Amino acid sequence: MQEVAEVLECGQPKVSQIENGKRGIRPLDLTVLLKHYGVEDERQCASLRRLAKEIHKVDWWSNQGPLLREDLRDLLTLEADSELVRTYESMLIPGLLQTERYMRQTFAVYPAESVELHVETRMKRKELLDNQADFCLRAVIDVPALHRIGGSRDVVRDQLEHLQREADRPNVKVQVLPLDAALPQDQLPPFTIFRQRGEPPADIVWLEHITGGSLLEQRQDVLRYSTAWDELTAAALSPAASQQYIRDLL
């Protein structure tokens, strides 16, 4: 197991879940393993790749078409397979907590033909919050994100009120990071930690950037971001104080 984890540059919990059938394997990971084990028979490789795709063939995003980037499909798979999502945003409201009007403003920089697809996809993702028994969201939002909500006053109020309502869910916790928060690191990029279902649970870090997103699965990387998360939640306002801060902005 350790050997496979090193080859895939991930933690052993992920390998254990794949071996036990608790999660599927990404096509890229499968290609790496086939090469590592010297599997060269094209028919066998094609068969294994077909089986890997079959695992998620019923996922709702599988029919969203080519405009949905491959890295976004990875994100959707991670999110759907998670029991806990911890996300930090410095300049934006977290995607699962956005209103449709806020989304449209965010996606305004995208090609016109893909805006509707991305809005539809994000709205569909929000349905995860309705699964209160098996899905939890923890969000830390930096103060600038709350003051950079563009659009009319109605759009701003709508988003802030929506954020308050979502924070009232039993499976959602929102904390606001004040400007004077004391952190060991001055600059932290937005990041999300997905805790995958299964035994043992596996944490995977997602970093989003201008051209897409990337995954961090090495134990030392995950530990670094887990530590950063603990520091953020310790420095942020309590959930109750955060609710009051948002309320004062209305």
UniProtKB/TrEMBL annotation:
InterPro entries in UniProt: Cro/C1-type_HTH (IPR001387), DUF5753 (IPR043917), Lambda_DNA-bd_dom_sf (IPR010982)
Start and end residues of each DUF5753 domain: 72-247
Domain of life according to the entry: Bacteria
Gene Ontology MF term list: DNA binding
SUPFAM superfamilies registered for this protein in UniProt: lambda repressor-like DNA-binding domains
Pfam family name, one: HTH_31
Protein name (record): Transcriptional regulator
Organism: Streptomyces violaceusniger
